[in-house]
Amino acid sequence: MGLAGPRTPAVHRGARILDAITTGDANTPAALSSALGLAKSSITDLVGALENGGLIGRSVDGRLRIGPRWATLSDPDEVLDRLLTACARAPGLDGHTFSVVHLFGNQIICLDVRSGRYPLPLTPRPGQRMMAEDSAGAIAILSSVPLSEAAELVRSATGHLGLSDEQVDQTLALRRRQRSAVYELASAHTGRQFARAVPGTRSSALTLHLPDRWPEPGFARKAGRALTALATDSEVGSR
Amino acid sequence: MKRSIVLSSAPGREGPTIVAGMSVRESLRQEGSQDSVRVPALARTVAVLQGICDARQPMGLAELSGVTGFPKSSVMRICHALTEEHLLIRGVDGTYALGSRVFELGSVARSHNTRLRDIGFTYPVDESFFVAEIKALRAEATALSGDLQVRCAAENKDRQSQQIRDFVAARVDLILVEPVVSEGLGAACDFAHAARIPVVAIGSAHTGADAVVATDNTRAGTLAGAALAKALAGQGRVAVVGGIPITANSDRVAGFLGAIAAYPGMTVVATSRGELDAPSGERAAEEILATNPTVDGFFASNDQIAIGISGVLSRRDLSVPIVSVDGAQGAVDQIRSGGAIIATATQDPVALVRAAIEIGSALHSGLGVFRQSHYISPRLIDVENAEDYQPWG
Fold this sequence. Notes:
The structure holds two protein chains of two kinds.
Chain A (H helix, E strand, L loop, with lengths): L3 H4 L1 H15 L5 H8 L3 H13 L3 E3 L5 E3 L2 H5 L6 H9 L8 E8 L2 E8 L14 E3 L4 H8 L3 H9 L2 H4 L3 H8 L10 E5 L3 E7 L6 E7 L8 H15 L6
Helix pairs in contact in A: 3-4
Chain B lengths: L4 E2 L10 E2 L5 H8 L2 H5 L1 H16 L5 H8 L3 H13 L3 E3 L5 E3 L1 H14 L4 E6 L4 H16 L3 E6 L4 H13 L4 E4 L8 H9 L4 E4 L8 E5 L1 H15 L4 E7 L4 H14 L5 E8 L4 H14 L5 E4 L2 H13 L6 E5 L2 H9 L3 E6 L2 H16 L8 E4 L3 E2 L12
Parallel strand pairs in B: 5-6, 5-7, 7-8, 8-9, 9-15, 10-11, 10-12, 12-13, 13-14
Antiparallel strand pairs in B: 1-2, 3-4, 14-16
Helix pairs in contact in B: 3-5, 4-5, 7-15, 8-9, 10-11, 12-13
């Protein structure tokens, strides 16, 4: 453990509690005390502080679980609940995988996933980062705003990621000249995707991930219509 | 001016809020819980994560220190620890952004807490118990920042079926049903399932619901039966007044009969059926007493029926004990004042609603539920504990 380890043990102990709850190893204070080898009084204090901050919560039967604050921290635009729920109800797209991605410099961050049952070249996972060039979502985000705004979006992470001007230009070059509701990409790394920018957000896109060989003819048109409907229905403040 | 950072324990619910101009530390001192004081590093962790989230861009230590009001050295230690835990990621310029673990945990939380926004609730009649449920539902909907649509079925099965279909057409996220019947709502529920909208029964099971949340009605009937047996010293002629044809009422009656079966001196001399209001109890009592003038005790399926029976007994100047189920204000008032109603087994509309919302949230988010039936234990309210009990109605 580095510099911070010995000085902030509560943070690391809190993280171990989150791990234990997430994996299902322990979901009561007594079980946490046993699993982590900490005194019950310490667990009581830690659980109380985590609960007070919304980092853990309790189900109806009193069992501990991951708290609602993580959902809001990872979704400041508050679009994921509605969007991913709508995906589950999307007619004709049953079994497919959807993700919502956020543009971060020349990368995209996967905010959350509605996993389907079809095998994909790369299975998207929450928190996963990948290069913008491998994401239809990045193309959709960059193409749906004016160039100046796209440049601002990419440059907002320039310092953090250490991007050169050339890398910024390469990212902006992903913009499609012809604007469209839905953008398609076939990437060797991440497979075939359709994506649409999420209205009401600055830098998020809904992505539909397809297996390499998807046999259904005319699917692109159907996917486009479905993504448009989903993104529009889920627009921030639409209800 | 410092940015506003919310430290509430659950987004959408009330909690300590850091207002503009007030540092996180000042707010914690004023409003923070004892747990936060005992583990200040975790309270600071929340503030640091929220600060970066609100900024929507990477933040340096100095900026984070300014936003949170914590010393820079403290923010640095927190950020280092959070980076080791993959809750933050440090950039080449020393700024911090949210790390992959935040999104992983966000996904887990979302699967538990997928936010319900639009909830439809259909109930049998404007009776105090359902009014209490509606009040609890409105509180839950407000906490969820959601919308609640409420429809009264007027004890009509076809009307309730249509209301379920209307909720589907309105694309609600969850349909809650206090059923007027146990059978006959299946087709409407199938319509909801086709639209992938979960249906949760409250109060009583019905065909087609994905899950049911109810009082342990058998236990409630058992408690009431034991109370009447005690009042009659195990001897007497009793009358049973059931309710509308739902499982909750048949369970209560079964529980009552099971309890008095242990007393050979107790016999059921009359049965009748009431509905959800006091007049139905009056009618049932008049019918029973017309043919059985020497009834020693009554069981009523709900407190409204019991209140109706009590009125009839009072007019006839009869001193006959009544036991029932609900724990409503009117019944508890009689218990406290020495009226005909001597005991009632409680229902808890707030607990029912909360459990239904939680199960509905899990179903709405695509998760299954471990138990499709959730039964809440009742307690018996009698003269011994009525003063301490807070009725819901």
